[in-house]
Each structure stands twice: as C-alpha cells, then as structure tokens.
Amino acid sequence: MEGAWRTMNLLAVVDASIKKEGLQDLTMQRTVSSVPFAGRYRLIDFTLSNLVNSGVSTVGVFPSYPLASLLDHIGVGKSWDLDRRKNGLYFLPVTQRDGGISSVGAFAGLEEHLQFFTKSSQPYVIVTNSFIVTQLDYKDMFEKHIKSGADFTEAISKGVQLKTYILSKELLIELIQTYQDKQVVSVEDVVNLKKSPYTFNEYEYKGYFAVIDSIQSYFEASMDLLNEDKREQLFLENRPIFTKVKDEPPTRYVSGSHVERALIANGSTIVGDVIDSLISRGVYIKKGARVENCIIMQKSTVEENCDLAYVIADKDVYIGEGVVLHGTPERPIVLRKGANVTKEDIR
Amino acid sequence: MNNKVVAMLLAGGQGSRLKSLTYTIAKPALPFGGKYRIIDFPLSNCTNSGIETVGVLTQYQPHVLHSYIGLGTPWDLDRRNGGVTMLPPYAEIDGNKWYAGTASAIYQNITFLQSCDPEYVLILSGDHIYKMDYEVLVDYHKAHEADVTISVLEVPWEEASRFGIINVDENMKVLEFDEKPENPKSNLASMGVYIFTWKKLKEYLEADNLNEESSHDFGHDILPAMMDNGDKMIAYPFKGYWKDVGTVDSFWEANMDLLDLNSGLNLHDSGWRIYSSNPQLPPQVINKTGNVQSSMVNEGCVISGDVTKSIIFQKVVIEEGAVISESVIMSGVTIHKGAKLHRVIVPPQFEVPEGFEVVDQQDKVVLLTDEEVEKWKERGER
Fold this sequence. Notes:
heterodimer; A: 347 residues; alpha/beta; 10 helices; 28% strand; B: 382 residues; 7-stranded mixed beta sheet; 5-stranded parallel beta sheet; 30 strands
C-alpha cells in the first residue's frame, strides 16, 4: 500500500481522562491533562503539539471531569492550528463514571463517540495519553507500524511503556463493539494482555520522556528542564511545543534581583532571589524573598522576605510576608491552587 | 443618534532618522519593548477604548505591517462587523493615488469611511508610544460640541520649538497653531491625535483635494483652514506618557523608560494591556553564570552573561562572559563570549562576535551595523 503510512491517514484519540491519585493536590480543580508544566504549558500541550508536528490533523480529546480548565485551555484548538473547516479538534466528553477506568483508551468511553470513528475517513488510529511528556514522532511510529504488518504497535522507551498505540480503525471499531465479550476494557488492556489472535509490535522511542503520575515525578520532570541537555531534547526549533498564548509583557528584573539557573515565563516581576526554580507567567517574587528549588505557578505572589525551598505553589497562591517553608527533594510541599499562606498559618 | 467612531491609523511613515532600523520596514512595524511593535500601542489603545473599526493606512514598505496585522486577531479586531482594514494606496482609472500627505491619505479612503458611516473620525499616528483612552477624548469632543479636538500634552519649555505648538484660551479653545515656533507662546504640543466630526471633515477633505496649492496635510492645510473659517477647534490636555520615537536616540530612550517604574509607561498594568502577537517559545532561561539586573527579558532567551538596564527581545542568546548594559537587543540576536556592549541597539538576527566591544561612547547611543563590526575586525582587535 503505497504511502499508507502518511499521517493524513491517521486519526488521533487523546485520552485525557486518566486520573493519577498521586497528583491529587494539583488536580482538585482540573484534569491531569491540564496540569501546568514548564512555566507556560499544560501537560496536554506536548501530546497535541507532537500530533500536529507529525502531521495528524484529526484529533479527538476524551476528557475527564472537572473539565472546565481543559476546555478553557484547548478551546477550538486554535493554538495547534486545529481549528479547521475539515477535520481538526473534537472535544468528546464521556459520561462521568465513579472511579473510572485508569487505562488508556477505555472502550466504554470510546463507545459513546463511535460516530467520531465511523464518520472520519482515516483508516488508522493512534491512541495516546496526556500525562507523558515526550517529543514522540508519530509519523515515524506510524511508518514502522505499517512496515511491521502487526495489528498493534506500542511505543516503548528504555523499557517504559509510553501508553501510545497504533491500530487500524477497523480493528478499533470491532473492539469497541465486542469488548465486553472479549473481557477487555481498553486498548492498553488488549496490548498488555497480548490478547489473541492479534499480533503486536514495539516502537522504540529514543528521545526525552517523563511520566507524570505523582508529585515526585512531576517535581523531578520539572527540575529536569533546568538541565540544558534535557531541555534541548524537549524544546526543538523545528518541532515547537504549542500552547494557549497570553498577552504577557516580558519579565521584569528589578534592581537587586538575583537569579541563578531558572526557567522563567513572561509577565513576571522578580525582585528577590530565584535559584534552581521554575517560575510561570505573571508571578511576583518580592524583595528579600528567596525561592530555591521551587515551582511557582501562574499569578502567584511570594511576599517580601519569604524563604521557600522545595515548594510547589499552584496557580493564584499568595505567600505572605516572611513565610518560611522548607520541603525536601523527596517530599516537596504543595500549596494548592488559590491558597493563602501566612506566617500565622504555619505556626 | 449614530455615535460610531472610526479610527484611521496613519502607518505609512518611513522613519528615515531611524537609519538601518527602518530600511526594510515601516516605522510603525519597528520592534519595541522586548516583544512589541510600535503600532501595537495605538491598536491596543483602540481595542481598550472600545473602538471596533480601524483603518490602517500603509505606504512605505508595507509588507511586514500587512502580514503582522493580518486579520487583527491579536487586538481582537478580527470582527464580522468593522474590525481592522488595511488601506494601502491604489490605482484608479485616472492614475495612481499615492498618499501625498496625511489629509490626502484619508481623502483617498473616503469610500471606505462612507461605508463605515461614522459620526466621528479619529486620526492616529502609527509611530507614537503611549497609552490613551480614546473614549475619554470622544466624550470630551462631544461635550465641547467641537468640530475638531486636538490632543495635546505639556512638553518642557526648552523643547517646545521642536513640536507643533497650540495656543489656547481659558476654555481650551484653540487660538493659534504654530508649527515648530522659534519663540513658543505655550508648551502645549500636538500629539498628532485628532478627532473630527465626520460631516465637517468630509467637507474640508473634498475642498482640500481640489486645492492645487495644498500640500494635503492636516497640520499644514486642514487645521489652518478650519481655524480661518472659525470652526470650533478644542484642545484636549492629555496627561500621561507619550513619546515620538522618531530618532535612534528617542527610540533608545523610550525603551529605557520601560525600566523606570516612575516613567508612566508600565507594561505590567493588567487594566490596560498592550496586545501583540505571541510567538510559541519556551520560557526564558537564566543560567548559573547569568546575571540580570533592572532589565526586561522576553521568552525564548538563554542568558549566561551579565545584563544590566537592558531590553532583551525573544530568542536572544547571551553567552558566558558577555556584558550588556543600557542596551536594546532585538530578537534572534546572539552575543558571543566576552562581548561588551554599552548603550547599543542591536538589530534583529545580528551576531555579535566574540570579544567585540562598544563601550564609553560619551553617552552616545550606537546602532550596531555590519560596517561597525567589519571596521572592528579590520582594526585587528580580533
């Protein structure tokens, strides 16, 4: 089949419904897929960007609840050029279920949007997730899938499953219609069980990746980005990571500031000391404050003379004057979205 | 009553005193303030003032401006009704209609204006840095039942002879209009921001078009004619930051003003945002050897050198040991190891060689050019 591997023949399912218990502090008001990452991104940006950079232009996003933050972030897919007349981005929420299924590509959810598959023209489907940060080239993976002749191809890196699969649409539809009889719950499940009579192929991905499934892995992956070697594997000139843009002015460094080894997004004002840390958009680090080994998210304020180490401050957190908070690399302190922390609270 | 205001933004200026910075782009397209272009200021002012119909008149090197403004999306001007319309000069059956002056530029787009059916027309210039609520100006114009209102600001007396000076009575009625007077009678300078009642403006534009003696300019022809005929001309005193970035020095100064919290040009004011295109770039990185003081830095930069009192645009790389002070470094510039720049404007995509130095120019601002770098190499300093 000449050119069958061309990514215009590929339809994407982004399973943004996976819950990670370990990330609960960051997911009280959002899905795992919309957890902020690397100063200006959300986790799902990496998957969506890889898809469009690989030439995939029909993308179904299956979100979990609460979905307002994800919906607000991806909108009609404009930031990824997926706001198209033909194909583009489809937001496909599924009925809220207690507990839910935590494996990628759950058939119960896909079944609710069977039309998304039957109506589209692409003969192949990529089923992927939005909690693994990679620079995966789906085009290369698709090419290898076609060459292998297998029913399923799974992406693997250094023995770790990247929970990304390619199969034919015909097979996916068949599975959606018969999964209960076959006693499987998801695409991931079928691949893990190596369910007969199907054949399975592995695709080895060699680039940078991080699985974000706990506060520790989130913290480590974030800190990885301060390492030039790792950062350069993730942010590539010819395969950019797209996100919802904001009109923030450049970041302002006020006289007396001291910054050493930091990743800083636009719209921030730095007066104090920032060392080995990640600062998101619109953050204010005031005079005399010291922020070391921290992740400070969007629009948070660190007041004068604070001393923070190993702290993850979520969006809109206010840390009052003189607050001292020291976590450890193994157990960073998480301040939840909108928290207001003062010296009195800590005593 | 129709209260519709249409803004006409004059963006055809060459800006020749900005030298190589405007060889290939019109002055309004000149990058400013780390991520903006000058035209972002009047366009954002329109959006923030609730003006939804904007005509942008282009002429000199319009390509960058046209592709930059596009459908007007960054300023929320991509609208079904109104929005932004690009208005380059065009040919007609009786010949080419090059914009001879500010008034002829508006006259030649009279069909556009008529199709908008405005009550008031706001004339703006695309090469000034300021934040202004035009709605307040419109209200002022209405309250005074003026035919034209000119926005003015107080300039230092010693500089008044550089500007168009307006003399007013106690009710802000304009009595006299002095273009660059030797002995100014007031220090109220015209900002080049006018609001006209459209019916009145149309009469004057049509008459001016037929007048072969006219230079077809608002300041030289239209306003003096209105004055002579006794039409009601009022001055609106603007209080706030305003700068005409017409020269290399004033361009540098306006950039430096961004670093002065008392200058009145605060870009971090979320109540009056300046909108711009937002490239998809990762956050900036300040490395272990990097040091940034009293500066503004945009996304996509990697700073390993020493930066003080400077404006750094996107995708700038400053290597270890480089020392930058009081400078404006435009997008995509690489400054190699050990280079020293003091009061330098570095144009986009420039590569500053290792060890290159521009220091102590008796406080003069240097616009870096290829010739400058060649001369330095010939002197054998490297």
